[in-house]
Amino acid sequence: SGMQRTYTNRQGAQGQGVPQNGLNTQNQVNRAGQQVAGQGVSQQQNQYTQLKQQATGPQIRAIASLNMWIKGWVILARVTFKSPIKNWAKGNSSGQLASIDLMDASGEIRCTMFNDTVEKFYETIEVGKLYYFSKGVIKTVKDKRFSSLPNDFEITLNASSEVMECPDDGSHAIPLTNYNPVQLAAIEQLAPDTTIDVIVILGLVGDVVEITSKKDGKKLLKRVLYILDNTASTELTLWSDEAVNFSIPPNTCLAVKNVRVTEFSGRSLTASRQTRFEISPAHEMVEHISQWFKSATDEELASLPSLKKAYNSEGMGSNTPLMSIKEGKEEAQRLEKPFYFRIRGTIVMMKHDDSQALFYAACPAEGCSKKVVEQDGGYFCERCAQVYPHMQPRYILSLVVADYSGRAWCNAFNEVGELLLGVDASQIKAAKDKLKEPGDSSEAELFIEQAFQGVCYQEISMKIKAAEDTYRDEARVRCTVLAVENVNYVEESENLLSKINQYLSLP
């Protein structure tokens, strides 16, 4: 393989003495080395090296060269992360799992343990140490949105797997941490859920905020960091213990390992359990960013482009009157026909539990959003008179909107939903499906919560359609959010000044 790295021992021979009979032969080498313990240190090291050279077998492979079709592989890697043991139970299945992240000079890969292998390996593996790994199963990562490492494959350890510690004597070219930083401005060109490293200046540190999961009522903690480099600024969201325990002061140069690109209201970053922070590590970009920040003026910092984009949907309408929720609903009742108006308010809640559907199965044909029904192993669209092999999920959302006059339940559909949540309905559906699978679903749950909670309590402009109808013999006003955009405070200020001048000019 072109990506395969060949390691050599000190005598220049190919391979590193990975034994012919697997890693067990390495234990024989170690025992033989112990037999010469009474001899001089130099002579002992020479004999140990000679014994290692006698063991021949498969080469150590680079992590970047691993795939499902390689057999008999052995890797030498440093453990960079070790998760807590998670106990899970779904339906009639239960068990425990844990994962570790492995790194060599070529890349990183996740390694997962289940049940008996957790008991076998978990306590013996320590973060920061080097280990030989062999006889695991290499699988394709099913959904990269729930994996924070830039690798299409992952390793699962089983009963026949072998893990053996390797002395870290400095002869192995495996760093403690390997950064491949991306400038913030380049994030706009990356696909959502891409995992990257960044080296940035920590600007403001937000407070810890508690939100409630609609799935199971759990309390979630989050903290937003505002970060910048010489190309742009954006937000980095921390969750749970990482949010609570974060204590790095502002104006610090940070290297951040393994953060995920998100597109909630523009481009931003979110941390996971695998994210690691390091203050001013030895990296050329640290010096560059630090010097830039020291010399930058306040005007230059203020003019940095922000990757957090404004909401901007078509159809807001410059002639749509600005009023309160209460006034808009009363006008719809007075006119006895649909009334369109704008508000400046906030979304205080978006339903996303299992009590209500978040999307419907729509026709995948361009220009058609008709609901489809399952038929003959596919999806039938009555409008197109055709059966399609797949359907397209489209949002049907229910949310509570509030302003100074009160609150109102509103509906919102696909285009507005995508703007508010920053992801399309197929991504939310995939995360929802992940929750139903056995195993660890915490990252899928976090993905959903971040989408639905992230949009709440931000002041935005909304165009609303209010229409009176009857429900269970009672008259009511139904509201639908038709368009959203960020508040234009300059325009709003001019409108207010204009109204003030009108009042002042009254006799």
Q: Explain this structure to me?
A:
- By secondary structure, the chain is α+β, with helices and mostly antiparallel strands.
- The protein has helices spanning 24-35, 41-54, 116-121, 240-245, 284-295, 298-302, 325-335, 414-421, 425-435, 442-454, 489-504, and strands at residues 74-82, 86-90, 93-103, 108-114, 130-134, 137-140, 153-156, 162-166, 195-205, 209-212, 219-228, 233-239, 253-262, 268-270, 276-279, 339-350, 359-362, 373-375, 378-381, 386-388, 392-403, 406-413, 460-471, 474-486.
- The protein is 22% helix and 34% strand.
- Strands 1, 2, 3, 4, 5, 6, 7 and 8 form an 8-stranded mixed beta sheet that branches. A 5-stranded mixed barrel has the order 9-11-12-14-13.
- Strand 23 and strand 24 (474-486) form a beta hairpin.
- Helix 9 packs antiparallel against helix 10.
Major β-sheet profile: 8 strands, mixed
Number of helices: 11
Spatial gap, N to C terminus:
87 Å
Low-confidence stretches: 1-42, 47-57
| Beta strand count | 24
Global mean pLDDT: 81
Give helix % range. 10-25%
Structural class call reads alpha+beta
Please compute the radius of gyration using only Cα atoms: 29 Å
Name the shape in a single word: globular
Strand composition percent:
25-35%
Topology, pairings included?
Elements (H helix, E strand, L loop, with lengths): L23 H12 L5 H14 L19 E9 L3 E5 L2 E11 L4 E7 L1 H6 L8 E5 L2 E4 L12 E4 L5 E5 L28 E11 L3 E4 L6 E10 L4 E7 H6 L7 E10 L5 E3 L5 E4 L4 H12 L2 H5 L22 H11 L3 E12 L8 E4 L10 E3 L2 E4 L4 E3 L3 E12 L2 E8 H8 L3 H11 L6 H13 L5 E12 L2 E13 L2 H16 L3
Parallel strand pairs: 4-7, 12-14, 22-24
Antiparallel strand pairs: 1-3, 1-5, 2-3, 3-4, 5-8, 6-7, 9-11, 9-13, 10-11, 11-12, 13-14, 13-15, 16-21, 16-23, 17-21, 18-19, 19-20, 21-22, 23-24
Helix pairs in contact: 1-2, 9-10
